[in-house]
Amino acid sequence: MNSEFRNLDIGDLRIEIPIIQGGMGVRVSSFGLASAVSNEGGLGVIAAVGLGEEGNVVGSDYVVRSRSALVDAIRKTRALTNKPFGVNIMCALTNYEDLVDAAQEESVDVIISGAGLPLKLPFLVKNKETKLVPIVSSARATKLICSVWQRRYNRLPDAIVVEGPLAGGHLGYSMEELGDKKNVYLDKILSEVLLVVKDFESPAHKIPVVAAGGIFDGEDIARVIRLGAGGVQMATRFVCTYECDAADNYKKTYLSAKEEDIVIIQSPVGMPGRVIINEFVKGILRGERVDFGCAYKCLSTCDPLKVNYCIAKALFNAARGQMDKGFAMCGSNAYRINKIVSVKELFLELVERARLSLKRL
User: Fold this and answer.
1) Domain ranges of the chain
2) C-alpha to C-alpha distances, 298 to 95, 214, 216, 347, nearest whole angstrom
3) Cα-flanking dihedrals φ and ψ of residue 74, to 5°?
């Protein structure tokens, strides 16, 4: 049993505080939030999804603008911090390979990839300086990724994020699994993933496992560290910080949310997603075709003929504060947030409580 609150080492990359800020699209976690988190010793993360969605961009223009906007966000982050930071790139994006190429060309420290299995990621990233971190929701997915990467590319993940069912964003679980939390609880999945990782890592290549999904406070951090996690990934707590890149109306949605306002919807990404209910969400749950028009062709898993709303538009509108035309994604504990704080204040709270909790045992 681990009882130490210590650095998170991802290969030869040292993260001083073992907290990764989860990537939040569209434009919720960009250079402002990512740089602030990294400056406090954690790993700030830019979400690559949706950066090209602006105005009347369509087709190939969207792809070009997405790459350009990601490069711009990376460079702005680097201008604001000299600490390591990462980029989260969803596998389901049609321009996934182009965005990965842009990230490695800019020598990003870490690429985190989920919303699907990033089986080709080592093929796309030739250098070993950029650390590769897949997001998984099961031991089975962990074994598959490690096996394929090792066999095809002679490479293993530099770390693994295991995401439980209480997470925000897009969830790697079925609607049925999300309704049966006893069978998919984070601690259980974390323990199973740790066992799989032991079969692949060696003294020369350790693979830290980072726990995510429902991590809210220092006690949660201490709990998963005691189970063997090398650190945590948190997203929801960082929304209500001054440095978060989302509009104030987006943050106010969190502050006013009650527990019963947090619901699961089916996303055009092809996965369930946890959101804060509003009139827009009520409309799509009724099956209404809401403000639809596929301008971007951004998701390989989205069929515009079958879905009843454009998630790219909805999230882009929400990030700008137009909550009547979109919605806020969130983790299961979003309703527990009651004020906006600085990233520095949040880190001080999380670190102090995690250390105290670990010392008690």
Assistant:
1) 8-247+338-360, 249-325
2) 7, 28, 31, 34
3) -65, -45
- Which pLDDT band, with edges at 50, 70 and 90, does 308 fall under? confident
Q: Cα separation of 244 and 31, whole Å?
A: 9
% pLDDT > 90, the chain: 75
Which residue is it, tokens 């290969």?
11
Q: What is the CA radius of gyration of the chain?
A: 19
Encode pLDDT of 31-83 as tens digits: 999 999 999 999 999 999 878 665 555 555 666 788 999 999 999 999 999 99
| Amino acid residing at 189 | I
In the prediction, which pLDDT does 181 show? 59
> CATH number of the domain at 8-247+338-360, please?
3.20.20.70
- For residues 264 and 87, give the distance between their C-alpha atoms in angstroms, rounded to a whole number: 26
| Assigned token pair, 7 | 């650095």
CA 284, CA 291: separation in Å to the nearest integer? 10
Amino acid at site 218: G
- Write out the two tokens for 305: 């003929």
